Amino acid sequence: MTRNSPEFEVGPRLAGIRANRGVSQGTIARRAEIAPAYLSRIETGHVHPTFTTVMRVLDALHADLDELLAPDEVRPRGHPRCPVTSQGHCLLEVVRTSAEIGRAEGRETYSIREVQLLRDLATFMRTATPERVRAIEMLLRELLGT
After folding, report:
1. Is the pTM of this model over 0.70?
2. pLDDT digits (tens, 9 = 90+) for 84-100
3. Which of 125, 97, 77, 121 shows the shortest CA–CA distance to 28?
4. Shared-domain flag, residues 39 and 75
């Protein structure tokens, strides 16, 4: 199946990414600022979303078009791709909106900006030369005082 074939449906692919990350429809709908029922209808293929809505949902999933459009054999199945925090939690599960942060006192939380920085660092590390990895390591040790 290619993205130009009639079998390519955005909704089920979004549902697969969401399920792969282990995040509820309610959480993604809140982050994307759409109604949970609307997200459900998108995921089941009953509604064909606009490009803007797809991008909002992808942003809420911390995913991009490349992941949405990746061939099935490239997309991971059954194993969430979730960075783990220093306390061992799935990073995507501890990202909260400001309202959720207020309710989750005492729980580990990260801002969207912090998550984006971590994603940028992960991207950098996948392609960095050994010299650059060592430079990052030295910088972190200096910042952490270790």
Report:
1. no
2. 666 666 666 666 555 45
3. 97
4. yes
Whether the Cβ atoms of residue 34 and residue 57 lie closer than 8 Å to each other:
yes
Rounded mean pLDDT of 133-138? 91
Same domain assignment for residues 67 and 134: no
Intra-chain end-to-end CA distance of the chain, in Å: 50
| Domain of residue 105, residue span | 82-146
Instruction: Provide the number of structural domains found in the chain.
Output: 2
69 shares its domain with 138: no
**Rounded Cα gap, residues 97 and 85, in angstroms:** 18
Secondary structure element (H or E) that encloses residue 19, with its range? helix 10-21
DSSP-derived 3-state class of residue 129: coil
The single-letter code of the amino acid at 80 is: P
Contact at 8 Å (CB) between 65 and 52? no
